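note to self: dont lose this again. the chain is below, predicted strucutre after it. 162 aa total, dont forget to put it in the shared folder this time
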Amino acid sequence: MSFSVHTKMFIKRFPSIKYLWRKIRMPFQKNTTTAYITKIHTNASRLLLFIFIASFSFYGCKKEKENKLQGSWKLLPRTAAEQSDTIIYIFKENQTLYRQVSDSIPDTGTYKVKSEFFKYYVVIRDLNKYDDADYYIEKVNKKILILQCYSPYMRKEFVRYE
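---
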């Protein structure tokens, strides 16, 4: 005898339990379960599709930021003492960074654009101890670049240099 035969015999002996058995069995019927599983599968498919599309769109934004960053930028002086020197930052396509101070030999370093939680950063390394940091890209367009570092706090404002 299988389990379902025993159950049927038990229900015949105790008719008041028949109503209770229907209530318990109702959520586990084949049609209800199949519909529930299909709904879960559809929602999971939509979520995976959304994640897939979102990942490509964020990658595109990162490339766009990197393309806007490339070129020559003149650092705006923060103090009166800095006004005598012209400092130019040159971001090349091969992630090489040059910093030239008033027609002297340029310092060379590397940079990389990274994204974290919808924020974009420029990671500058091997330039010098003072400028090596992770800078948050506050603003970048055709004419203006504003980089900000929180530890230690530094803010660099640039204009496009032609």
